[in-house]
Amino acid sequence: MRNFFREGHADSKINQLVNWNKVSSLPKDGGLGLGGIKIHNTALLAKWGWRYSKEESALWRQVIRSIHGKEAFDWFTKGKSGNSLRSHWVNIARFWRLVDSLASFNLGNGLRIGFRIDPWVGNTPIKEQFSRLFSIALWPRCYFLFFSWPLAFRRSLEDEEITEFQSLLFLLSTEKVVNSDDFRSWSIESHGRFSDKSLSTHLKTASPMDKRLFSAILQSGSPRRINILIWIMVFRFVNSSEILQKKSPINVSPSICPLCLKASKNLPHIFLYCPVSSFGWERIFSLFNLVWNFDSSLSASVIQLLSGSNLPKTPRIIWEILSKALLIEIWIERNQRIFHDKARQRAEIMHAADLNAAAWCSLRKEFVNYSIQDICLNWNVFLNQD
Known about the structure:
There is one protein chain. With 386 residues, this protein is mostly helical. The protein has three domains: 3-101, no CATH class; 126-181, no CATH class; 219-383, no CATH class. Helices cover 50% and strands 3% of the residues. The protein has 17 helices and four strands. The chain has a two-stranded antiparallel ribbon. The chain has a two-stranded antiparallel sheet with strand order 3-4. Helix 2 (37-54) packs across helix 4, helix 9 (224-234) crosses helix 14 and helix 12 (275-288) runs antiparallel to helix 14.
């Protein structure tokens, strides 16, 4: 098949006769549906990881487990590679761990599910849903099979943590342990069974979104240092007191927002929901005539902002750059108020974001004939282009 789409021979330059990205795409996208070799190979290797979790009595599974060891609940083998770095199972394990999150946990009797580490409710482990609470917990490594745990903490709970603890107790009251085995289901198939076709399709449809997201982060025209900070936000590496608190048994700073001095000092509030921040977002959304609902996490919200708008090219560039500029100005304002005791009005923060966005836009070829002042004062004109 590969040679059919090539011309030339071994002694001359090989020319590709087709656009492989086009040929590999699904028929509904205008392709031939041949499938990329890398994606198809990933799906076939991952299938063995799925079979390992299902075929508990199979002889081949017992052989693999004796060589590579097993995880705590025997859903898969340990991370070690065995006696040979060339083991075929090493490649299977590597690819399976890339897609393991697509196999959701279903609670039965709780004998094979970790209370803290496994995403048995929703798509996120309970320790991440209640990260602040678990960062100060002294609970041992607890499993559902124990049915009870000592609820001890390193210090007394604050008001917010008490509320979070109540939410955790309410969540536990809605889940019931039943007299059946725990099992895993394939979340991207309605019948819950793995198929290499569903995984291949999922990987194909995910790739364009990922490419667009990282293009928006790294190639939209803003300075590299700005792009790096946005990248840090996406991957949850922002150095805040919330992160430092996980490493310390005591509060390292007041838990109130430095912008409004009222609500909780967590990153989603500071960047998205605080009255100082929301003033800028409302202005941007009204400029584009959009209604927008942020996600509960900062990372997911930034991803939505940079990859979720279906706008023409020029308005989309403005959308991405304005969003990045406002995020940066909010971060600068937060630092100025904490470390230098200096504050700006909300309109001043938005004006600074406008100027930065206009300056970054002026570096792109779409705006090469316009000055920073022209761009800043005439956003609506550019939004009507394309």
